[in-house]
Specification:
The chain is built from 18 helices and no strands. The protein has 371 residues and is mostly helical.
């Protein structure tokens, strides 16, 4: 049996990693099998073995690839042992922190994710890497800052990622995703018109690439913009287009789209349609074990269908327990505004206070991350 040089196997691992980043599922699986076969014939090199294990655990910890019912905490404990049992330096140390940050982001543990990303960024300069590696880090950092409502940090990282990705034809999906984050930040700053500019570019790019789930996400995000502009007919049209595209692939964003469409229909006073969308969306959210969306669907029911403020309060209690301050701020204002229009002033004040307190938590979070 001939011995395979370790650098050839490492190069193939790099392609495997590229395939994972770009969601080329078929290519990733085929390359993984080739790597596993070649490892048995590879000349001895501990760094390449560690690189393989880091990639393998990152794959297993990814919600897109891990099997239902798998204990991800246990998997992450095994992942951490790689660092405990090896002296990681340079690229390998970077990947450990980067993948750990990605894991905590998927688990919605945003502060932990940010801490690992910060350590990863310090290590980026310790080894030679191409600009696409940096772009991937910038993109992931922009995600966590966006979810923490740290708008300027998120916008900066997303723009840096986009400016690299636009040089490479094969990174169309990442270009679109970067546009989504930039648009989301414009929306958080209450500039829906600027967000629409980026989202229309994202839609054009996703249609050019014929990537259906990104076309769906473009329509979903455009609908969210029009909802903020109170152009509810346009919002409904785009949410319906997103729903049709997601239905083709039974995509995981189906319940999120149903929630947004239900909310707009409720604002339009179409309560029978809202009721149907509520039940369909809640069943999907239950099936997907999406507790965040279940709380949001209960918010819709409590506000518009059963008129049960205790149910609404339970949703906000859940948001607070999960540290979902951006949702508390957004839906606190929506709830307070609706109650004020119904002349339920005492209840409206309660939810305005929730909105203000959530905003303080977001600002406090920004201060902590500055230090």
């Amino acid at each position: 049996m001939s011995v395979i040089p370790y650098d050839l196997v490492a190069t193939k691992m790099n392609f495997w990693y590229t395939a994972l980043k770009n969601n080329w599922t078929g290519k990733a699986e085929d390359t993984k099998k080739e790597v596993e076969k070649e490892l048995a014939q590879m000349e001895e090199n501990q760094d390449v073995i560690v690189y393989y294990n880091l990639l393998l655990y990152n794959l297993q910890l990814d919600y897109m690839y891990s099997n239902p019912g798998v204990n991800l905490d246990s998997r992450f404990d095994d992942f951490k042992k790689i660092r405990d049992q090896n002296n990681l330096e340079g690229m390998l140390d970077y990947y450990f922190h980067f993948f750990a940050g990605m894991y905590h982001f998927r688990q919605k543990e945003l502060i932990l994710a940010l801490n690992f990303y910060r350590d990863a960024e310090k290590k980026l300069d310790s080894f030679d890497c191409d600009e696409l590696e940096r772009a991937e880090f910038y993109f992931k950092a922009s995600e966590v800052y966006y979810h923490m409502k740290q708008t300027f940090f998120s916008m900066n990282y997303a723009s840096r990622a986009f400016n690299i990705y636009k040089k490479y034809e094969t990174y169309g999906e990442r270009r679109v995703q970067s546009q989504f984050i930039i648009a989301g930040n414009w929306l958080d700053q209450m500039y829906p018109e600027k967000a629409l500019h980026n989202l229309n570019k994202a839609l054009e790019e996703s249609e050019k690439q014929r990537i259906h789930h990104l076309m769906g996400s473009s329509h979903l995000n455009i609908g969210i913009c029009y909802n903020q502009l109170e152009e509810l007919d346009k919002a409904t049209d785009h949410f319906q287009k997103a729903l049709n595209l997601y239905n083709e692939e039974k995509h995981g964003f189906l319940p999120k789209t149903l929630f947004n469409l239900a909310h707009v229909r409720a604002k339009q006073g179409k309560l029978s349609i809202t009721d149907d969308l509520y039940f369909e969306g809640k069943e999907l959210a239950k099936k997907n074990k999406n507790s965040d969306l279940l709380a949001k669907f209960d918010l819709i029911k409590g506000l518009y269908l059963s008129f049960d403020l205790d149910m609404v309060r339970e949703s906000f209690k859940f948001f607070e327990e999960k540290g979902m301050y951006a949702d508390m701020e957004e839906y606190g204002f929506v709830t307070a505004d609706l109650l004020e229009k119904q002349e339920k002033i005492r209840d409206a004040v309660e939810f305005y206070r929730i909105t203000v307190n959530a905003r303080r938590q977001i600002q406090r979070s920004a201060f902590l991350h500055e230090n």
